[in-house]
Amino acid sequence: MNKPVELYIAERREVDPSFGGLLAKGFALLRCFVNEPRPMGNSELVERLQLPRATVSRLCRTLYQLGYLDWDPNLDKYFVGAQVLALGYPYLLGLQVRHIAHPMMQKVADTIEGAVSMGVAHHLEVTYLESCVHKEGTPAKPGAGATRSVLTTAMGRAYLATLSKSNLARILADAEQDRPDEYHAHIDAVRANIANYPKRGFAVNEGDAGLGVHGVGVYSKIVHLNRPLLFNCAMPGSQVKRGMLEKRVAPLLMEMTRSIERAVGLSD
C-alpha cells in the first residue's frame, strides 16, 4: 500500500462501511517494517504513512506494549518485535504440505543450481512460505514471510494468468493506481505471460524482479485456507542460457508440482 493510509481507508469504506480504520492504521505501520526491515523513528513513520504525529506515536506505543514493536532507546527508533512471528505461526503449522514438498523442492533446486519456492498470492503481493536453495542458490533467497510483487515474479504472473477477467482487471487497475511506476515498467511482460500461460502452463520472469534473477512460476491445484499454492524456480541470470527456462527448468518445475499434488491426494 503506497498511497496515504487515510485515503486507502476512505476508499475501502466506500465499498465496506464497516472497514476498521484504526486497525488498518496499525497494520499499515507494521508493514513499513516489512517493506524496509530496519529501525525507524516516529518522524520517518509519519512521513511514510502521512498520518498525524500524535496518531503515529500512539500506535507505536500501543504496538510496543503488545510486543509487536520493540524500541531502541539509544537510537530512539522502533523495530519489529518477536511477537509478530506468533501471528504467522498457526498458518505455517497448518501448512503440512511444506513437509511433503520440501524434499522434492530441494531436489529440483540442486538440479538447476538455484532456488525453488512455494508461496501464495494476496492482491498485489506474493508471500513466500518455503524456499529451498542449492548451496549459494541465487542472489535473492526469500524466506518464509518474505513478500514480492505479483507483477514482477514468475509465480505472481502464474497467479494472475489463472484469474477471471473481472478479477484480473480489478487487480491490474489497483496496481496501476497504487504502483504506477512498477505497473508501466512490467505490464507488457505481465500481459504476455497471461496470454501464453494456457498454452505452455507456466510464467516467466526474465530479470524483471531485479538482482539479475530469472525465474519460472506455476499455479498448483493445492489450496490452503482458500488460497492456491504457487511454486517457482529462480536462478542467477548469469547461469541462464537462451531457452533454458522454457526447455529445461519449466518441465522440471511442472513435474515437481504434479508430484506434490499427487502426494497430497490430488489426481492429474
From TrEMBL:
GO molecular function: DNA binding; DNA-binding transcription factor activity
InterPro entries (UniProt xref): GAF-like_dom_sf, HTH_MetabolicPath_Reg, Tscrpt_reg_IclR_C, Tscrpt_reg_IclR_N, WH-like_DNA-bd_sf, WH_DNA-bd_sf
Keyword Transcription annotated: yes
All residue ranges annotated as the HTH iclR-type domain in the record: 20-82
Keyword DNA-binding carried by entry: yes
The entry's keywords: DNA-binding, Transcription, Transcription regulation
Signal sequence interval, chain numbering: none
Residue ranges annotated for the IclR-ED domain, each copy included: 83-266
One GO term (biological process): negative regulation of DNA-templated transcription
Name assigned to this protein: IclR family transcriptional regulator
High-level lineage: Bacteria, Pseudomonadati, Pseudomonadota, Betaproteobacteria, Burkholderiales
